[in-house]
Design goal:
Elements (H helix, E strand, L loop, with lengths): L9 H14 L5 E2 L29 E3 L13 E8 L10 E4 L14 E4 L22 E2 L4 E9 L2 E8 L6 H10 L7 E6 L23 H20 L2 E11 L23 E9 L5 E8 L12 E2 L3 H11 E3 L5 E3 L4 E6 L26 H19 L6 E3 L4 E11 L3 H8 L24 E11 L2 E5 L3 E2 L1 H5 L43 E5 L8 E2 L6 E2 L14 H4 L6 H14 L6
Parallel strand pairs: 6-13, 8-9, 12-16, 20-22, 21-23
Antiparallel strand pairs: 1-24, 2-18, 3-7, 3-10, 4-5, 7-8, 10-11, 10-17, 11-12, 14-15, 18-19, 19-20
Helix pairs in contact: 2-3, 4-5
């Protein structure tokens, strides 16, 4: 859940601040001054179990349960890609009033949209991210839902990825219901988090009080996601798996050619991982899973063309081929390439970047070229890692498994309360509050979310329902995940984090399966709850918590589910990581 997008928006913040003050508000500050979150009254909906205890175990797991006793045997893999690019109509309902005549919509200059038919609804395709009223005027490249299905023994898993800003759990569950007739034990859906696709959460409409979600498009998205799952399951065939990984610190130009960080401490996960599934007979590629963490917003905030951003060029390059620094083209591996987002919280993306082409010439930032150059360079690096001498390993099969934990998370963010009350958010079930009383600090709703673990041979995947700060996954407060050409704390930061108060190990990565050689964190997995920030550096504005930023690098708090969000998520994630299935 975001309010304004990746970068702060003065217009959005000011408007929400006015609404907040009109309703009355309390102070913020660091965690010891947090508002209360005690629920009052009856639940709006029958609340689910808040989460399993150690005795009960996860909500679901395989192998080891009736119907999925085994997760070993011949590996079967199928894949599918279904286009979900929105159709952009004539938008005859919208008239742009461009006051300064520069051809760009800028409300700070007095520009506005007019509703021609006067029904109060602006019929447009609203692009998610970077504030409101970014209407799509064309399509630069398509958006997709892509799925990899895997089966070994009695265990069948499907991993889906949608080119969108984020996707709520209720919609994931709806897709699961739509494929309930399939022989499928677990379906996971994540979002690539592109900031250049249609709004799927609701908060990037024509203004702060109008939803950007089109119910018809959301229904189509669910139907096509279910279609992709069915196609992938129908295409299952025997497969081997090739694993490869590399760190961008070792790539040409170093880390900051590709990605940066804009919030202190400067810590990022620079590992790129690929898993290529190959037909046992014939050797053709079925699918290639590529995983990395960075905001897909290289195209920039002024773009008005729909795009998958850099994942488009990355997928195209891995499939069809890419050119390297010496001008040599590596052939693509074919099949269907699927990109899964990583730990991208804390402003991981095109920030404090030194992006250049292979020849060293600078790339214009916030352009389609920036996204294309990044995607094509990453594709070449992936192909090199998968190629001869790249250090990859191949297994004839892979054991499968999964476990999930569902629970409630309190929504404490005041801005999110406004979005719920005005029905700006795409609807989702609310729990554990009295809908007949005003939403407040003492009567705040909860949402149902989940964390999950998926095992695929040598790899283990931890799926988290939002944008995780890489430090929460890796640690790195000692500078071990900070590029050598960047300070871990900016010298001019007026309110720097106290690294002496940072938590020590074990971090989430440390708790993953001991024999997992490839440990992946899938961000925006099965839900979207905004940013997850380390507790020691979670700071709210003293008078406008969640609406305005505290001094320094504290934008993410305004776009988080609440001050107790990460502690709740962490508790359930650590439980799931430590849990082991009972002996047969």
């Amino acid at each position: 859940m975001f309010l304004c997008g990746m970068a702060p928006s003065t217009r959005c913040t000011t408007y929400l601040a006015a609404l907040f003050l009109a309703c009355g508000g309390s102070g913020g500050g660091r965690r010891d001054a947090a508002v209360e979150d005690a629920a009052v009254g009856d639940a709006a909906t029958d609340a689910p179990d808040a989460g399993p205890t150690d005795e009960l175990g996860p909500d679901r797991w395989c192998p080891g349960r009736p119907g999925c006793e085994r997760g070993e045997g011949m590996l079967l893999v199928g894949a599918a890609a279904v286009d979900v690019t929105p159709v952009i109509g004539p938008m005859t309902d919208i008239q742009t009033v461009d006051v300064d005549g520069n051809g760009e919509y800028d409300p700070a200059e007095g520009d506005a949209f007019e509703d021609r038919d006067g029904n109060g609804v602006f019929d447009g395709v609203w692009i998610a991210g970077f504030g409101n009223a970014r209407a799509a005027r064309g399509v630069n490249n398509p958006q997709w839902v892509r799925v990899i299905a895997l089966r070994a023994g009695d265990t069948t898993i499907a991993l889906g990825s949608i080119d969108c800003i984020g996707y709520f759990k209720d919609d994931v569950d709806a897709i699961r219901d739509m494929v309930d007739d399939q022989d499928l034990d677990y379906l996971a859906i994540s979002a690539t988090h592109t900031h250049e696709a249609r709004d799927t959460l609701g908060i990037w409409g024509v203004n702060v009080g109008s939803t950007g979600v089109d119910p018809a498009y959301m229904a189509m998205l669910r139907e096509r996601a279910a279609q992709a799952v069915r196609i992938a399951l129908g295409a299952l065939r025997p497969a081997a798996v090739q694993y490869a990984a590399f760190d961008l610190r070792d790539a040409p130009g170093g880390v900051t050619r590709y990605v940066g960080d804009n919030r202190d401490p400067f810590i990022l996960d620079d590992r790129v991982t690929a898993m290529r599934f190959v037909e046992r007979e014939g050797g053709r590629t079925i699918a290639t899973l590529v995983h990395w963490g960075s905001h897909p917003e290289y195209t920039g905030s002024h773009n008005q063309e729909l795009s998958s951003d850099y994942p488009h060029w990355l997928r195209e390059g891995v499939t069809n081929g890419a050119v390297g620094p010496d001008g040599t083209r590596l052939p693509g591996v074919g099949g269907i390439t699927v990109f899964y987002q990583g730990a991208l919280g804390s402003q991981i993306g095109p920030n404090r970047l030194d992006q250049t082409r292979w020849d060293g010439t600078p790339v214009p930032q916030e352009t389609h070229e920036s996204a294309q150059v990044l995607g094509e360079q990453l594709a070449w690096l992936v192909l090199r890692a998968l190629g001869e001498g790249g250090g990859s390993v191949v297994d004839e099969t892979a054991a499968l498994g999964f476990r999930t934990d569902e629970f409630l998370v309190k929504v404490q963010n005041r801005g999110y309360h406004f979005a719920i009350l005005t029905e700006v958010f795409h609807p989702r079930a609310l729990y554990d509050y009295d809908p007949d009383l005003p939403i407040s600090d003492r009567n705040a709703p909860s949402v149902r979310t989940e964390v999950a673990i998926v095992d695929v041979g040598r790899a283990q995947i931890l799926m988290m329902p939002g944008e995780l700060d890489p430090a929460l996954f890796l640690g790195g407060y000692d500078g071990s995940y900070t590029p050598s050409n960047r300070p871990i704390i900016k010298p001019d930061n007026p309110n720097p984090p106290d690294l002496a108060a940072a938590p020590g190990p074990p971090y989430l990565r440390d708790l993953m399966r001991e024999d997992a050689e490839y440990r992946l964190l899938f961000g925006l997995g099965n839900d979207m709850l905004g940013y997850f920030i380390p507790e020691f550096d979670y700071e709210l504005h003293p008078t406008l918590p969640y609406i305005a930023e505290a001094e320094g690098d504290h934008y993410e708090e305004t776009n988080s589910v609440g001050i107790d969000g990460w502690p709740t998520i962490r508790r359930h994630a650590e439980f799931l990581l430590r849990w082991r299935p009972p002996a047969p």
